[in-house]
Amino acid sequence: LGCLGRMAEQVEAGGDLAADDARTAVDFFRTFADRCHHGKEEHRLFPALFKRGFPREFGPLAVMIEEHENGRSSVRALDSALDAVSRGLEYGRGEFSRRGREYCVLLSDHIRKEDYILFPMAEGVLAEPEKLALIEAFERFDREDIGPDVHARLEAAAADLGRRYGVDRRC
Fold this sequence. Notes:
This protein is an all-alpha fold. It has helices at residues 2-12, 19-51, 60-86, 91-125, 128-146, 150-165. 82% of the residues lie in helices and 0% in strands.
């Protein structure tokens, strides 16, 4: 997110948009944030919480699901803006910057909700055997649904972007 924010700043300051870096960021968000992280929530964690009586239609899980959909829409918009940039259409740069900033706000807020609402809530209602089963299910999800080398590839890409954009990896 820090790198995406820096890319947006560069464009707003009249600088170039490094399309390869921007595509790497979009791939990271699409694959890691959505397929890996949100995938585990939607396919493993949320069903466990639904079984514990949490509603699908309203409340914290409904908010999380809606934000996942909003994030997917934002990433598609970033991708579309990059396509416009690659075709030489000037509006693509501004659209990328605007959508990038929106996505940074959305995902930062989403992460705070996960850290301070969703995960503590799950921790409080799930029994230890359920938590252990979820950990195993998450690991199986990574192996079977995501692929064995995907995390390492994405971590390396994020670290490389972080170095080039001066963003501390812990941000």
